[in-house]
Amino acid sequence: MNNPELAAARAAVPQIATAEKLLQAAKELLTKAPVEESPEAAREAVIERAADAFLAGGAWPKQVGHDAAKAYAEADVALIERQARQRAVIRAEWAVHDALTDHSSAALEHLGKRLEEVLSAARTAFETIGGARTAEDVISAGGDAVAAWTRLRELTADLENIRRAQWILLAAPRVPGGSASDRDARVHLWKRAAAGHVRGLNPDTAPAFARDAILTGRVTLEFLRWTATQEGAFVPTSDDEVEAEIATSRPDASDGEGLDISPAVVPAREYRPSQVYDHSTAPHLDASQPTPAKPTPNATVGDPAPFVPHYT
């Protein structure tokens, strides 16, 4: 899905913009690269035609070796050209990866400025519509309220795109040819912690509609209004900032009342005497000595407890 906010943020950083332009140019070159059969297939085709002609007419074609070598060379040139353009695409993808790794913070700063613009425009539009909450209320109010309502719908989409672009830039850029699963997992954890929206926001105390919008990424007018009223609304400029925010809003249990592990004196345990039965024998540890006498029994073997405590 195209995201104009993400495209604008990347275009605002010269290093990223240049790398992406080169990648686009490399991809266009690859689409225009000649697509030929393999050199081996081209050579074999000439050889097969010569054999077919000989079997059909009995005469051997002239310059079969020359023609086969020429076909091989031409196909090899086309193959090398295509491989070179493929290499350019791979190198350009890595250039974009490196540019995003080194300069994503600048793109995120651009998103932060856009967030300020969107929220400022939203506050003005909400003041214009007053207490209207539905399209019917706005139509009844008339005047500037209708235009303000339309503007709010646009700002809702803008805020949603800003937040989606934010997560893409904050997560580590995907390695060319690699999977985005690890990156997506990090973003999901950040969203569950309600991080990256309002400084110091505790997900346990945030409104339910706000938690839902943060987790799903679907921005509503209600969430736009709520965000516009939060003084701490921001766009993080690094993943470290997100992690620090989570640590601040959800401190570890050790910061509060922890488990008391100081030494304590406990009463000595009283052990019951060992039970000696009729079949018991004394340990015979030294075979060179006489067998010890049997100990005096002090207990009897009772019936074992049933495995099933209750019978029905």
UniProtKB/TrEMBL annotation:
Residues 274-312 are annotated as: Disordered. This is Uncharacterized protein.
